[in-house]
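Project outcomes to date are best conveyed with an example. Our students and postdoctoral researchers have been running inverse folding experiments weekly, and each run begins with a structure described purely in tokens. The record below, which covers 262 residues, was selected by the lab manager from last quarter's runs and is presented without edits.
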């Protein structure tokens, strides 16, 4: 598969995130529905967090096994662990700093983030995650594994379509502008395109772990914020139902990915 074809298909795979974004413009949404959708976003992100950690664990465990068998030095294991810890820390604390410095600087300390800010943070976290997906697509095509690359493109495209619902969950009933939806879609899905370019150009386990860890840190922070938003009196059952629905939705798309061989 040529470089241009791979990059084009990688971009399409990432931009399927736009399929779920129009949901954010629906008005007249009740508090119960808003809480349900917000927690659906949380459920999707929670599954992605587990999924990211599993992808980080695999290369680190493989490297550790080789080190124990004496095939490589333990420095390789320490290097990957260091990248993971640094990436997770930066991904989490950078959003804490960004919020404190630019979002809440002129607000009361206890005030929650606006739906638009939450939506943008979700998009940023997903964007880092999708960059790693682009890396996988690009590296597969770059190694000549065309069948795998195509399956990844289709599978990730389906998976990313559900992420659009996750991005606009906090926006339910607020009717954001089309330009804002276009921006969060680009932030969330565009990195798949960039990751495909990088992945096709060179193969690097370290880069993949770094961006997965950055995504995990960002998503971990956003999950905490979404829990605050959805914690309203009398809506606990609705919120938990949304959390379960989001988790199962993301898990379902992951199963389809697995069945496709991705």
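After processing, the design step wrote out the following sequence:
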């Amino acid at each position: 598969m040529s470089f241009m074809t791979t990059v084009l298909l990688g971009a399409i795979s990432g931009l399927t995130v736009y399929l779920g974004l129009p949901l954010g413009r629906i008005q007249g949404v009740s508090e119960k529905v808003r809480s349900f959708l917000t927690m659906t976003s949380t459920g999707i992100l929670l599954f992605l967090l587990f999924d990211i950690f599993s992808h980080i664990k695999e290369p680190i465990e493989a490297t550790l096994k080789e080190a124990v068998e004496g095939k490589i030095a333990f420095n390789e294991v320490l290097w990957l662990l260091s990248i993971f810890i640094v990436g997770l820390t930066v991904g989490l604390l950078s959003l804490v700093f960004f919020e404190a410095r630019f979002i809440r600087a002129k607000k009361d300390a206890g005030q929650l983030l606006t739906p638009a800010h939450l939506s943008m943070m979700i998009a940023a976290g997903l964007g880092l995650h999708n960059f790693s997906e682009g890396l996988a697509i690009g590296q597969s095509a770059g190694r000549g594994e065309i069948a795998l690359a195509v399956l990844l493109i289709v599978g990730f495209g389906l998976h990313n379509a559900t992420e659009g619902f996750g991005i606009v969950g906090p926006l339910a009933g607020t009717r954001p502008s089309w330009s804002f939806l276009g921006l969060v879609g680009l932030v969330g899905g565009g990195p798949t395109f960039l990751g495909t370019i990088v992945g096709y150009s060179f193969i690097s386990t370290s880069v993949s772990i770094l961006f997965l860890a950055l995504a995990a840190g960002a998503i971990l922070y956003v999950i905490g914020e979404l829990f605050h938003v959805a914690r309203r009196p009398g809506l606990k059952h609705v919120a938990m139902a949304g959390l379960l629905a989001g988790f199962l939705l993301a898990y379902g798309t992951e199963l389809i990915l697995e069945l496709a061989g991705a």
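The mean pLDDT is 78. The two ends are 17 Å apart (CA to CA). The training component of this project remains on track.
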